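Trying the structure run again after the queue cleared.
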Amino acid sequence: MNAVWMLRVLRWAYVAFISAASGMAVVHGRGEGKHGASVVLALAIPELIAALAFLVEPIEVAACVVLLVVFAAAGILSLMSGDVLAPLRFLYFAATAFYIVQARRNLPVQTQTLAVSE
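Done. Tokens:
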């Protein structure tokens, strides 16, 4: 498996996980800790939309920016509620999204073109 396809597998796995987590938050609509359902929904809905948009490579940067904003807000809210581990989880999610975008942009153009034709 070449680098392009490995990166696509990582992208799909990442989107599946983030979409499932935010989808569960939307369906159940309940907050964590001190945060009510409205705060959770305000973060989960844009997160779900951005995660699905992250699959479309031409708009991956915009989707990544939205994800980074959501993860930053969620991390800050978690810290404010006294949860010191959740911000690390959100940092990991943000770093993964950023890595996926940067890694794809750093692939040689001929490698990306070759992978599309396979």
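The two ends are 11 Å apart (CA to CA). Worth checking whether this holds up in the mutant runs.
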